[in-house]
Amino acid sequence: MKQKKYQLQQVGASGSYSRYALVAEGVSRVTDSTTIEQQYGRDTSFLGSGEVGDATTGILETSDGKLFEYVNYGDDNDMPYTLQQLLRRNMVAQRAMAFNVQCCYGQGVRFMDRETKQDTTDSEIRDFCLKNSIHEVFMQQATDMKFFFWSVEVIILSRDHSKIVNIRHKDVSYCRLEVPNEKGRSEHVFFGDFRNVMSPVHTEVIPLLDFYDPLGDLMARMGKAPDPYTGIRGKAPEMGKDCKFAIISRIPTPGLQYYPIPYYASIFDDAWYDIYRLIGIGKRYMIKNTSAPRIQIEVHRDYWEELCNNEDIIDPDKRKERILQEKDNIINFVCGPENAGKALITGYYFDPSGKEQRMVRIINLSEGSKKEGGDWADDMSEASNALCFSLGVHPNLIGATPGKSQMNNSGSDKRELFILKQSLEKACHDIMCKPYHVISHYNGYADRGVTVEVPMIELTTLDKNKDQQTSIVSNNGKNEDSNQQG
Length: 486
Description:
Residues 467-486 are annotated as: Disordered. With 486 residues, this protein is α+β, with helices and mostly antiparallel strands. The protein has helices at 36-40, 79-88, 91-105, 123-131, 134-148, 214-221, 272-289, 303-310, 316-335, 377-390, 395-398, 411-423, 426-432, 434-442; strands at 6-14, 17-24, 57-61, 67-71, 110-113, 150-157, 164-170, 175-177, 188-191, 204-207, 244-250, 295-300, 348-350, 356-358, 360-364, 450-453, 456-459, 468-473, 479-484. The chain has a four-stranded antiparallel β-sheet with strand order 1-2-12-15, with helices on one face. The protein has a three-stranded antiparallel β-sheet with strand order 7-6-11. A three-stranded antiparallel β-sheet has the order 8-9-10, with no helix packed on it. Strand 6 and strand 7 (164-170) form a beta hairpin. It is elongated and about 115 Å long.
């Protein structure tokens, strides 16, 4: 690796001494051509989506020539991509979101016996879960619910429409809702890549079940029950047709029309997101631009002449060469790691007043052992805490505020924080279980005493002789605990 070179540049004089600064070789003065915006970027802002004001729409054409009108996801139809990009740029926000997803997952969705509160032993249900990778689907669902506050699951029926045989997750970044009909209902979900506005969108058109009564809507479409709105019972579809439907699970937010705006989106219009980013840029800038030792070197005005005279150098060119060599020797002594522990020998004398006159004096301008950028340590913690607060995560749970004196609470406090965090996921779990309840009732699992639950992980104390236990908050208001050895 090429070693960075430095040079001595005279910066002033004091009495008999000339002052030199140690600077990088070839450094010139800083120009004003680089603006603050170019160095640090613009302030982050997030204007929301089409929910703010009138929603905008777009037109797509399917491969068979049909035209559909859909609601843009944000004013520019890019809200999910913008959210992902902004979160990915901030390690605290991204880590907090990952923690939220993991907490939301809990112990995964389970088909459980209603009486025993244990996993069902029904072979048909267990085969359904295995063949559909049910836990992976639920993790994908939890990811969308925490990032975007809604999710889309697609159920696929058998050819004879007797059973739901598959469930698949659709990433909502690539989902758009159809413009509602005259009854106020969106009839389809469109799944495709909407990022390239200049190219045709190749989409999958999926019929959407009623948001509030997906089971009743599905039963009516299959001719098994009257329509919930009209009371008219229709005919069953033909064999192998109308086998795929979408179910939406959505966390309500104020002013919601079509797509929810996550509560955490406020951090992008607040200053703390930018404060955290600017602190990192500032620390990096300081480290990169103060890598040279902050040294002041004072050289007596007679030192260079005495040096050449002592070595009997008379030729002017050779004297200049010897002075440059001596300057390099001083620089290498200050900067060279191979010279660590070595001494620089120079002369000194006492003037008639008895004051010591050193020929060369090296002064360290750094403030003791203080590191560059350390002034912002408290600000960094404050910004991290603000981001975690907006994302609903206590900093101690993800290590956003490290150090033994940085609010590092006891194990009991952390355990209670984790239990509290898990308990707050109950509302989200109930909403996310909607498609699984539809499956349970349509396939007849509910008639066998099977229900759907998302057990939570509850950390315990050592005196209980186990690491954790499973806690189920049921809708009857009672908590059911089952011990689990770690």
